[in-house]
TrEMBL record:
Domain of life of the source: Bacteria
Protein name (record): Cell division FtsA domain-containing protein
Keywords of the record: Cell cycle, Cell division
UniProt keyword annotation of Cell division present: yes
InterPro entries: ATPase_NBD, FtsA/MreB, SHS2_FtsA
Domain SHS2, chain residue ranges per copy: 6-203
Organism of derivation: Anaeroselena agilis
SUPFAM superfamilies: Actin-like ATPase domain (SSF53067)
Length: 711
């Protein structure tokens, strides 16, 4: 029977660790391990910056392992949590009537939850460009069956099963650079996970996850964080600071080459030991390790503060304990500084080594170290249910999809950031216009559908995809919105023919859009207000004929201040006097009347009929006696309200109230005693009583004047 070999690579910022294990009934037996450090800084902060240089290291490690176990083709790897994005997602299935749940049912729920997380990433603003992120791993938070929390669903029966997971996503360039380096040495990526997921599976098994624990994998470029509580992993995080910052501090403090500074840092474990080194100037130094540790302690404190801030952001409160792994965890003073930053006892922060790991057998002595946790975790996950890749081509571009079971065209479109709705071709937007007060809806044109081809054959969203499939997607074409002109929507009336001041004229129909002059060719848009009709009034007709009915303005100086008076023009239409608002018809004869200068009554608003007055019965007839009296002068000369006044005149005007007397009644009745013949006798009666010219009168009084001869 052929051995089932598992190959894992921990591609770190400082070194590459390769492991080969054999899957047995008792677990994974570790057959061999190899380690190779980078000769240059080809990786920074967990990101490959020099793919060919990293590929050389991978080739050396792979070659040495191949010499021991034979050909290796597929490899499992882990990515550091650089620019990590985590999302919580869930899924639910109706399991009533289907019997006991199986492992496949549980797996299907997990994959459904990951697809939900992918959809959340694609449709929310969790990251700027969702298409630039890959799902690199997930952890189950909880299973529930009919609302009850379960550790596992296998063998259970119920009506509804649900799951909640934490899915982790990394930028595409992180994964693509890993893939490129692996492919350069002729390997194929079998599974991919996240470094803290790998580490937590080694040191914090499910039986310990009821405790609020934090695992920190301090590497060279990044410090990855994972937290457990209430029986599950509750979050993952990343700090872009780690051992390289400490190495850089040593290099800066003592003028050392980075590689020399790294070697010096590793020799600082014994504070009493003296270490010797030579700086870039060729000067030799021999110092007690404690002195160097004190010199770099501010940088160690900063690193601890950054890690503590990430822990508190994920956990809200200090955890019960912190487990440190990774080569950077051996930095002198880091556990104590981290305990102080979290305000927990120093005994609750410990550096851990993988002495024994469930389901891993024959762990080599060189891996029983803090930096052996992650590679062992990658190997352990390689034999389990990790995410694998399926590569397809979409519109000529390679696309890697995580194998979530039954991959479909819809999954490929989601990862590529193609909105499935864009394949249908939306109808063009319609709009509404109002024509002569009547609303009218104008629909847009229908869109043209797109198409999907898989390996040259027509396909649909639900069709399955396999390794190497070629997918071509042509988006639908959206319909267009209508662009009608005025003349397309309403008949344009014939122009009017009229005679204006003895001149035959043609006036076109009245056409406006949103109150502005328009033509039959004017294009319309949504909510336009259109008028297209014959002119209804004389003002509209004259405007169309080029004779606007502008009013004339007169200016005067009244009591020292400027005053204007506006007079609208007047016309004769078919011999009838009228104003601009008069109706008109085709073939009308129109004459413009010369406007007379305004009178003082017009200018000053003196309307005799509207003034308050007493009604007195004078010699048997009604007589209006005003209660106010005016004093008007024009250019210093007395004037009456009926007098016309030229523009620019200086006018003085005053008005005062009076108590009417008989003399006012005679004045209102235009009775002038001075016009009587000489020797005439005048008798005045008010309500039958004898009266004088100065006798007051009231509203409704009866005034009689009798004229006789003197004897």
């Amino acid at each position: 029977m052929e051995k089932k070999l598992l190959f894992a690579l921990d591609i770190g910022t400082r070194s590459v660790v390769g492991l080969v294990g054999e899957q047995t009934a008792a677990g994974i037996k570790v057959l061999c391990a190899e380690r190779q450090e980078h000769t240059t800084r080809a990786m920074l902060d967990g990101q490959i910056h020099d793919v060919p240089e990293v590929a050389k290291v991978l080739a050396r490690v792979t070659a040495r392992l191949t010499d021991k176990v034979g050909e290796l083709k597929k490899v499992s790897v882990a990515a550091a949590g650089r620019a990590l994005c985590t999302l919580r997602a869930g899924a639910e299935i109706d399991c009533g009537g289907r019997g006991a749940l199986t492992g496949d049912d549980e797996r299907a729920l997990e994959l459904a939850a990951i697809q939900t997380a992918q959809h959340q990433l694609a449709t929310t603003k969790a990251v700027a460009d969702p298409t630039g992120y890959y799902c690199v791993g997930y952890s189950v938070v909880r299973f529930t069956l009919d609302g009850t929390a379960m550790k596992s669903l296998v063998g259970q029966r119920g009506k509804s099963a649900a799951i909640e997971v934490i899915a982790t996503f990394l930028p595409r360039q992180v994964i693509d650079s890993l893939q490129a380096a692996i492919e350069t040495v002729g390997l194929e990526m079998a599974t991919l996970t996240l470094e803290p997921i790998a580490a937590i599976n080694v040191l914090i098994p499910p039986t310990m996850r009821h405790l609020n624990l934090t695992l920190v994998d301090v590497g060279a470029g990044t410090s990855d964080v994972a937290i457990t509580r209430d029986g599950s992993v509750i979050g993952y995080g990343m700090v872009p600071f780690a051992g390289d910052e400490v190495t850089e501090a040593v290099s800066q403090a003592y003028l050392l080459d980075f590689k020399v500074a790294e070697m010096l840092k590793r020799r600082l474990g014994d504070a009493r030991k003296k270490v010797q080194f030579t700086d870039v100037l060729g000067v030799s130094h021999k110092l007690v390790a404690r002195e160097i540790v004190e010199r770099i302690s501010p940088v160690v404190t900063d690193l601890a503060q950054a890690i503590a801030a990430q822990i508190l952001a994920l956990n809200s409160v200090p955890p019960q304990a912190v487990l440190l792994v990774g080569g950077g965890s051996l930095t002198p003073g880091l556990p104590e500084s981290l305990a102080a930053a979290l305000d927990i006892a120093p005994s609750r922060v410990a550096i851990r080594r993988p002495d024994t790991v469930d389901s891993l057998l024959d762990i080599p002595a060189e891996l029983v170290a803090p930096d052996g946790v992650t590679p062992l975790g990658i190997l352990r996950l390689a034999g389990g249910r990790s995410l694998t890749f399926v590569q397809v081509t979409l519109n000529g571009q390679p696309l890697r999809l995580f194998n979530l079971g039954k991959l479909t065209v819809a999954d490929a479109l989601l990862v590529a950031g193609i909105d499935v709705r864009s394949l249908h071709g939306r109808p063009g937007l319609g709009f509404t216009v109002t024509i002569n007060g009547q609303k009218r809806f104008l629909p847009g044109s229908m869109g043209q559908p797109g198409y999907i081809l898989v390996n040259g054959a027509e396909a649909s969203f639900g069709d399955s995809l396999a390794e190497g499939d070629i997918v071509k997607v042509e988006k639908g074409k959206n319909g267009s919105s209508p662009r009608p002109a005025v003349g397309d929507l309403c008949p344009v009336p014939a122009p009017f023919t009229v005679i204006i001041d003895n001149e035959l004229m043609t006036a076109g129909p009245l056409i406006t859009v949103n109150g502005k002059a328009a033509t039959a060719e004017t294009s319309l848009a949504d909510r336009d207000q259109v008028v297209c009709r014959q002119p209804a009034t004389l003002a509209e007709l004259l405007t169309l004929a080029g004779r606007p009915t502008d009013s004339r303005e007169y200016r005067y100086i009244v009591n020292g201040g400027e005053r204007t008076f506006v007079r609208s023009p007047e016309y004769m239409v078919n011999g009838v006097r009228c104003g601009p608002a008069a109706p008109v018809n085709d073939n009308d004869i129109i004459v413009t009347l010369t406007a007379a200068s305004p009178t003082l009554a017009d200018l000053l608003g003196l309307d005799a009929e509207a003034e308050e007055a007493y009604i007195v019965l004078f010699n048997g007839g009604n007589c209006r006696v005003p209660l106010r009296r005016w004093s008007i002068t024009v250019a210093g000369k007395p004037a009456t309200p009926a007098d016309a006044v030229r523009p620019g005149s200086y006018i003085d005007y005053s008005c005062y109230e009076i108590q009417p007397m008989v003399s006012d009644v005679l004045l209102a009745a235009e009775f002038d005693p001075r016009s009587l013949p000489a020797g005439s006798r005048v008798g005045i009666l008010v309500n039958g009583e004898a009266a004088e010219f100065t006798t007051p009168v009231k509203n409704g009084d009866k005034v009689d004047v009798a004229i006789g001869k003197i004897i």
